[in-house]
Amino acid sequence: MSRAHQSRLRLTAAALTAAAVTGTLVAGPTAVAAPVAALQAAAADVAPFPKGGTLLSGGRTGFLAQAGTTAAPYFWTSYDGTVTPLPGARHLGADGSDTVVQDSGDGTYTLRDMGSDAAPVVITTPGRLLAVVDRTLVTQDADGIHLVEKAGDRVLRRTVTGLPASASDVVSTAPGALAVRSGGPSAQYLSLVHLSSASVVKTVQTRNPVLGFEAVAVSKTHLTWYDYTAADDGASYWLYDTGSGRTRELGGQGLGVLAALSADWRALGGVGGLSLHSLTDNRALTVLDRVRGVRTAADGAFLVDGTLDRVEGIYRVTVGADGKPAAELVASGGRLPDLAVTTEDVPSVIDFDGTERWVEFAWDFNHPVTPTFTLTHLATGRQWTLSSGRHSPPPTYRFTLGSRGTWGDIAVYDGEYSWKMTAREVLNVGPSLERTGTLTVHRTATRRDHDENGVPDLLVRDGAGVLSAYETELVRASDYVPDPAAPTVLGTGWNTYTLMASPSERTLVGRDRDGVLWLHRGVGQKLLPRTKVGGGWQVYNKITGGSDLDGDGRGDLLATDTSGVLWLYVSTGDAKTPFKPRVRIGGGWQTYNLLLAPGDVAGASGGDLLARDTNGVLWLYLGRGDGTFTARRQIGGGWQQFTHLAPFGDQNQDGRIDLYAIGTKGSRIYPTRGTVDRPYGTPDTLRRTADTTFKTVF
């Protein structure tokens, strides 16, 4: 590098640094860049590119850029590293050429060829300046869009013909051509215009005017765009070829929100960095890691504001004769720092028995990331994972343990946890970053809460003998019996029992095929080894439990024998002798094919009993609190449509257990009303979409 070049580079680098801070830029000397073919600049020799700078156009010998946005100063950077500040409020560049236009704001435009010492050309013309193509201005007024150029002392003004009504803006330019967007909310159009004829060559209409065209790029021989279907259920790239006159669909290829065309390649910048797609075959090449701007340069090259190997800046991208892409850094914005956490806020103790209802886990990063956060319950190994948090503002990411400790839709357990946060930079650039730790969740089990997560559960035994605890809130929110992956699985092999019930909190009983009754007690999120209650239970054809019939605070067990007698087994609270000797309640219960002891339904002094007869009529027996019931009361008919009735937690928060009715054509939740004459209110109808045939629900 010459000493004079070094001096110019230091001078312009200082000017750009000052511009990035103060928003002003002093005028500098006009520089003539060396031919592109002779450039092999090393990264240490290239010009600086300011943080937040904007690439505006790419030419034969250099590119036009702005030090920032809106009122930031403009500058021209030659490929030899020379930076030339440009005075004035607004400048536009012509992609593929070295033409830069200064807009004075009064209809006077100064055209400069930044690759030569040619004198500037001044054009005065009415209308609003939309773009510049080669050395032609593209303007708009009430009469349409015009092409304005100067020949000697004469200003030539041609109106573009063939455009649809309401032509609004120029969305892409290239040597000899431009793309114009037209239309409104009901219809949008994209037109390819050739400068030589000042007329439209091709107009296409978007299939979805609400979303409109994206990733538009133009050349003299092609027009490409991204379009959505009318129903917004699909999208694809399209390419029009002027040589064949054909329009063909290119497929998805990932949405690149930035696009440019050369004679042989289509450049897409977006998720995944910069990719080049051949216009003649199916080749696709990945070049850069990140992209902020893509412009058509000259000689088949693209100018890209992007990042490669953590070095950001302006790259000149080409494809060699061997078909391999090359990216040459022509202006450097410096090296990006490695991904790091700047702040972290993770609680060590979460107490949902206290006042806490919403808990956030938050991190700040020095780059935008795609994070994943996982909680692992140490006692069970069960994990809760969220792969997307909310970021406000980026790059702050927050994951929420929601109301009553729900993680997503599922409430977390009481106990000790480990946590892991894994973050990768957007576009998966560089290695991932990981943080780990531990925390404790405090929460007390509620009524019918079989997995200690603070939410009442619905116990389900499926046809395969798997016993699971479904959260009642999740059943309602999901509008169907939940997917088998959602519940807490309490065990397998439960098809050895012919009858099952839950007489009291966290206690299950099952009768095996030999008539032996077994007791299972729950601790944490699991059941302890079973204990034998006794034999002879083959005389019973129905059992149910859950209602406290004698007022001692424990739920009891009810059973009907084959002769239709109803028997009461009062719970003792002792695992070795869980029930007192049975007490006969009365006969005639063979008329019922379903029994349910849900607890207090209508506000009487004891737990209640529901019974459905063979005609589908549901009856209510109010518990007196002494182990007996009042005379039955009819709730209503039509209950034969349901295969299962089960207690469903206190959804309406009135202190009583609601009723869940499952049917082959739909399910319902009946809220309690607390009255004897009408114990249940208007039900909520749910759709039962699960394929599993449930054997027992209680």
Low-confidence stretches: 1-43, 477-485
The neighbouring-strand order within the major sheet is 1-29-28-27-26
By secondary-structure content and strand pairing, the structural class works out as mainly beta
- Basic shape: elongated
Query: What's the tally of helices?
Result: 2
Give the end-to-end Cα distance, rounded to a whole number of Å. Answer: 84 Å
Strand content: over 45%
What's the gyration radius in Å?
38 Å
Total DSSP E strands: 61
Taking the sheet with the most strands, its summary is: 5 strands, mixed
Helix content: under 10%
Oligomer: single chain
Q: What is the mean pLDDT?
A: 84
Folded structure, characterized:
It is built from two helices and 61 strands. With 698 residues, the protein is mostly beta strands. It has a five-stranded mixed sheet.
Question: Care to give the gist of this entry?
Answer:
With 698 residues, the protein is mainly beta. It contains 2 helices and 61 strands.
Summarize the helices and strands and which ones pair or pack.
Layout: H1 3-22, E1 47-48, E2 54-58, E3 62-66, E4 74-78, E5 83-86, E6 90-93, E7 99-103, E8 108-113, E9 121-124, E10 128-133, E11 136-141, E12 144-151, E13 154-159, E14 167-174, E15 177-183, E16 188-194, E17 199-205, E18 214-218, E19 222-228, E20 235-241, E21 246-251, E22 258-261, E23 265-270, E24 273-278, E25 284-288, E26 290-296, E27 302-308, E28 311-319, E29 325-335, E30 341-345, E31 349-351, E32 359-365, E33 369-377, E34 383-386, E35 390-391, E36 396-401, E37 406-407, E38 410-411, E39 415-425, E40 433-442, E41 457-462, E42 467-471, H2 472-478, E43 488-491, E44 497-501, E45 507-512, E46 517-523, E47 526-527, E48 531-534, E49 540-545, E50 557-561, E51 566-569, E52 583-586, E53 592-599, E54 608-613, E55 618-621, E56 633-636, E57 642-647, E58 659-663, E59 666-670, E60 684-686, E61 694-697
